[in-house]
Amino acid sequence: MAGRNYLPPNALKLRELPLTRAPHPALIDDPRVVHRVPVHPPPASALAEERIAAQHREIQSLLIDNQRLAATHVALKQELSAAQQELRHLSAAAATVKAEKGAQVRAVHERSLKMEAEVRSIDALSAELAHVRADVQELTASRQELTVKLKAIDDDLVRTRSESKQLPAIKADIETMHQEIQRGRAAIEYEKKAHASNVEQGLAMEESMISMAREIEKLRAELANAEKRARAAAAAAAAATPSGAEYTAGYGNHEMGYGVNLYGDPYVMHQGSKWARFLESL
Q: How many CB atoms lie within 10 A of CB 250?
């Protein structure tokens, strides 16, 4: 920009040069004045002057354009500075607005959280209120039941007071019952003693039965031994005598052959088995 405002040193000198005016080109080309104006070739100095004048005009226009551009540049620079300043102000304002908006958003968010917490607490309070109402209804029903029971107790108390006048007769009945209980206890003690005596007798009988069973077992053993000896004697006699003599001897002798009881006394065996079953049941 500083170079565009620079003027060459010859520019001022060009302003001081006298400029000769050449005939207007329109007059030269006009056929009516051709015969009036003699056509001569322009001298070299005139051409140089005209060229210099054209350059001077161009320089002047460039200077004017340069000045205009410089003024425009200054104005644009001022506008740019103002725009930058305004942009800084707007940036600061935007940051402030953003911070305010952020603060507002945070405040709104916190308010919404508080409202949600309040709504939850209200819901909890509503549930608790419903529970309290149910408890109140239950307490009301319980109060009514207690009122009915209290009335029944009052009636029982009145009846008890009327019955308390009969206490002497009741005491006499109680005394009679005590006496009956004493007699029952005495009877129970007597029964216990009798039962103990019966138990002792039963034990004695059981011991005697055990001894009898032992005797029966001994008798069985002796009877079995006797049967074995009789069978052995019969077998020996049969082996010592012929068959006819054996039949005759057996027929005439009631202690041998068919007359001999090889199985013992059936009554004794029956009694022994009965005592054995009794002992097993014990």
A: 19
CA distances from 202 to 112, 192, 198, 206 (A): 97, 15, 6, 6
User: Residue 59 class from Cβ within 10 Å (0-12 exposed, 13-18 middle, 19+ buried)?
Assistant: middle
What's phi and psi for 277, nearest 5 deg?
-65, -40
Tell me, what's the pLDDT at 22?
A: 46
Q: Which two tokens stand for residue 244?
A: 């006819």
Nearest one of 60, 67, 48, 51 to 11, comparing CA atoms: 60
DSSP secondary structure, 36-55, as one string: TS---PPPHHHHHHHHHHHH
Any alpha helices (H) in the chain, and if so which ranges? Answer: 10-16, 25-29, 44-164, 167-240, 243-252, 266-281
Asked if 255 and 234 count as a contact pair (C-beta separation under 8 A), the reply is no
Question: Residue type at 269?
Answer: M
Measured between alpha carbons, how far apart are the two ends of the chain, in Å?
146
Alpha-carbon distance of 31 to 42, in angstroms, equals: 19
Looking only at Cα atoms, what is the longest distance across the chain? 225
Output the six-digit token pair for 84: 């930058």
Q: Rounded CA gap, 258 and 251, in Å?
A: 8
- Reading phi first (left if > 0) and then psi (alpha if -120 to 50, else beta), residue 155 is in alpha
Query: How long, in residues, is the chain?
Result: 282
Nearest to 15 by CA among 55, 43, 45, 48: 55
Q: pLDDT tens-digit profile of 101-145?
A: 888 898 888 888 988 888 888 888 888 888 888 989 989 998 898
Dihedral class, residue 49 (left if φ above 0, else alpha if ψ from -120 to 50, else beta): alpha
State the CB neighbour count (10 A cutoff) for residue 153: 12
